[in-house]
Amino acid sequence: MDMNGEKVINAPQALVWQALNDPDMLRASIPGCQELERTGENGFEATVKAKVGPVSAKFAGVVELLDINAPESYRISGEGKGGVAGFASGHADVKLIPDGDTTTLVYTVNAKVGGKLAQIGSRLIDSAAKKMANQFFTKFSENLEGYTPETSSKAAD
C-alpha cells in the first residue's frame, strides 16, 4: 500500500515538530491508540486498536524515527502485530514546510500487511488507511490548539 498527501496545520513549524515528537500528543491524536511510550531517544512502543472492514484487532508494535533533520523531516519506520488478524509494517517520510504561522506537513507512506488483513483487499485497506490519516490530522490539529512544549511529556524527558 502506498499513500501520500499533505495537510496544512495552523501552527509554526517548530511547534508542529515538538508535537509530532511528544508521546502524549501522539497518543491523544492517533485513532484507537491505547498506549504509546517512548523507549529511547528515537523509539516508541504502541498499542493500537483498529478495525479494517470485518477485521478488528489490537496491534502491538514498535516505531523508530530515522533520518532526523529537525525541525524539517524524518522517517517513521515501524511494525505491528495483531495476532490472528495479521501484521502491518512500513515507513512514512514526513516533511514540514513552514509558511509564516502555518506549516504544511507532507507525507509519503509505504506499508505492507499480512494475515487476515491481506485477504480483505487493497481497496478496503487503502480506504481505512486514508480514513485513519484524516482522523489523525483532525485530532492532531484540535489538540495543537493551546499546546505548549512546556506542558508536554517531552519537556520532562
Automatic annotation (TrEMBL):
Protein name (record): Carbon monoxide dehydrogenase subunit G
InterPro entries referenced in this protein's UniProt entry, alphabetically: CO_DH_gsu (IPR010419), START-like_dom_sf (IPR023393)
Organism of provenance: Pseudohalocynthiibacter aestuariivivens
Domain of life: Bacteria
Signal peptide per UniProt: none
